[in-house]
Amino acid sequence: MSLEADVLVAGAGFAGLRAAIAAAVSGRGLRVIVVAPHEGPGGSSFAGHAGSLGVLAPDSDEERDAIFERALTIAHPGTADPALVRLLLEQGEARLRELSEWGVPLATGRRGERLRRVACFLPEMAVAAVIPDCVAAHAALMRVALAAGVEVLPGFTLAALGVEGGPPGSALCLDAFGGVVPVRARSVVLAVGGPAALFAGDVSALARTGAGQTDAGQTGAGLGLARSCGARTGNASFLQFLWYEGAQPFAFLPERAHELEVAGLDGVPAPLPRALREHVAARATHAPWGWGLPDAALDAYLLSLMTPAGVVPVRYRGEREPRLLSLMAHAGNGGALIDGDGRTTVPGLFACGECATGMHGANRIGGAMVLAAQVFGHRAGIAAALHAHSALLPPPPGVPEGTERQPSHHPLRLREAMQRNCLPGFPGEALSAARPSGAGGAATSVASFISGAERQRRELELFVERLKALLLLPAVDMLDRVRVLSALTVAEHRLRRLRAECAAAVAAVSPA
Ligand SMILES: Cc1cc2nc3c(=O)[nH]c(=O)nc-3n(C[C@H](O)[C@H](O)[C@H](O)COP(=O)(O)OP(=O)(O)OC[C@H]3O[C@@H](n4cnc5c(N)ncnc54)[C@H](O)[C@@H]3O)c2cc1C
C-alpha cells in the first residue's frame, strides 16, 4: 500500500483541518489528504480538556494595537516576528466569522453578542471569545472539509519526511498496525501539534484520561519532523508549564498570598518568603509559568522545593492536608519557523498551529494559539496548494529493509528524562530573589546558586549528548527517532537559554 497526494496535511486538529480546507478550496481539483493517528476529535484542539477553548477576538484597532504591543513584550526572551503578529490580528476576525458560518459554536450572551473574557498575560481587556464545545467544533470542521473534497485518513501517523534526502513530500507513515506506508506528495503541511507529549507531565494526557479517553494521538514529533528535513526551528523550549493539583490547574490567590505555605525538602511548611509574596497578584493573571517575567521567581521557588517524587507540597494556612502540585507541560510556543504563508525554510514544507512559531515568542497571550491555527492554517493551506500546482511528485520512497513494521509506542523513559531535564527555572534562581539581606547570607546563597546552576548545566549537557547518541543507534524505531529529535531540539534550546540565564543571574547576584 502507498499514499499519493498533491497536498499532504499531517494532523487533524484546528490547524490541520483549516489548512486542508483552504488547500482544497483554493487548489480546485488537487488531491488533499489529511493523515492523523485516530478517528474523531483528537489533538489538543478537540480532545480532553474541559471542552471549551478561548480564542483571541479583538474587535477594534485599539484592542489590536494593545494586543500587538503585549504580544511582542512577552515574547522576550524568545523571538516573535512583528509581521506575523500583525497578520494574526488583522486576519483573525475573518477566520472567526468563517468558523461561525461553518457551524463552529462561539459563546454568546443574552442579546446574541459574542461573549469575551480576559486572556492570560492580558488581564486588563476582555478580548478572548469562547468556543464552548470542541466536539461540535470538530464535527463542523469535518463537515466542511469533506464537502470541500478533503480526504481524511485516520489511522496513519507521519513518521518520516524527506526520506533519503528527498523533498519533504517523500515521506513514510505508520498505519494502525505499525505497517510502514510510503507516501509521496507535492507539498506537505505539518500540523501535528506541540511538544507537550514529550514530557511525563503532559496536560493533554491528563485531560483525556479525565474524559475517559486513552489516547488523543499526540506524538510530540513536530519539531523532529521539521528538523529531520532541514527546516529551522525556534523558541523550542518555551513550552507553557502549569502547576496542577491533581487534574485541576492550581489557582494563585492574591488575597491569600500571605497564607501560602510551602513545605521545603524537609517536609516542614513555611510561609512563602515575603519577597515572593508580592508576585502572587501578577502570577494570578496568567496560568502558565511566565518565561522571563519577574513573577517567574515564584514558580522557580516552588520548583526548587520539588520533592524527588516530582511534587511540591503547598497549603493555605489552616489547611490540614497539603496540596501536592506538579508542573505539567501544556502547549508549546516553539516550532518550525514560518513566514506569513506558513512556509518553513525548506521548499515544499509548510507548518501551522502548535508546531509552527514566529507569531509567538517565549510567552503568548491566551487564545492566540487557536487563532494562529486558523489564520496560519488558512494561509499555509493556500500556499501549499499553490506550490503543489508547480511542484513535481517525488518518486515513492523506499522502505528500508527490516523496518516494514514499527511500534508506535512512546518511550516512557524519554518522557521522564525530559521532565527531569527540561523544566524551566534552575536551582537557586528564586532563592537568590528571596535571599535574606546581609553579607553572610548573600554570600552563601550566591555560592549555592552558582553551584546549583552549574550542576544543572552539566546535567543538561550530558542529556543532550545522550540524545545525540540515541540518534546514532539503528535500533531506534522511526517514530521514536523523530521524537528523540524533537526532544533534542527542546533540550539544545533549553541549554542555550540556561547558559544565558545563568550568566545573567550570576552577574546580577555577584557582589559588585
Ligand atoms: C488543556 C488545554 C487547554 C488549552 N486552552 C487553550 C485556549 O483556551 N486557547 C488557546 O488558544 N489555546 C489553548 N490550548 C492550546 C491549543 O488547544 C492548541 O495549541 C491548539 O489547539 C493546537 O492545534 P493544532 O491543530 O496545532 O494541534 P492539535 O490540536 O494538537 O492537533 C494535532 C493533530 O496532529 C495529529 N498528530 C500528532 N502527531 C502526528 C503524526 N506524527 N502524524 C500525523 N498526525 C499526527 C494529532 O492526532 C492531532 O490530530 C490549550 C491546550 C490544552 C492542552
Unreliable parts: 209-213, 436-441
Please identify the structural class as seen in this structure: alpha/beta
Distance linking N and C termini: 68 Å
The overall strand count is 19
Oligomer: single chain
Compute the CA-based radius of gyration.
Answer: 23 Å
Overall helicity: 25-40%
Ligand kinds: flavin-adenine dinucleotide
Instruction: Kindly report the average pLDDT value.
Output: 91
How many domains is the backbone divided into?
3
What report would you give on this structure?
The chain folds into 3 domains: 3-103 and 134-238 and 333-390, 3-Layer(bba) Sandwich (FAD/NAD(P)-binding domain); 240-329, no CATH class; 414-509. 40% of the residues lie in helices and 19% in strands. It is built from 15 helices and 19 strands. The strands form 4 sheets. Strands 1, 2, 6, 7, 8, 9 and 18 form a 7-stranded mixed β-sheet that branches. Helix 1 packs parallel to helix 11 (368-390). Flavin-adenine dinucleotide binds at residues 10-16, 35-37, 42-45, 49, 53-55, 157-158, 191-194, 203-204, 207, 217-219, 221, 330-331, 353-354, 366-370, 373.
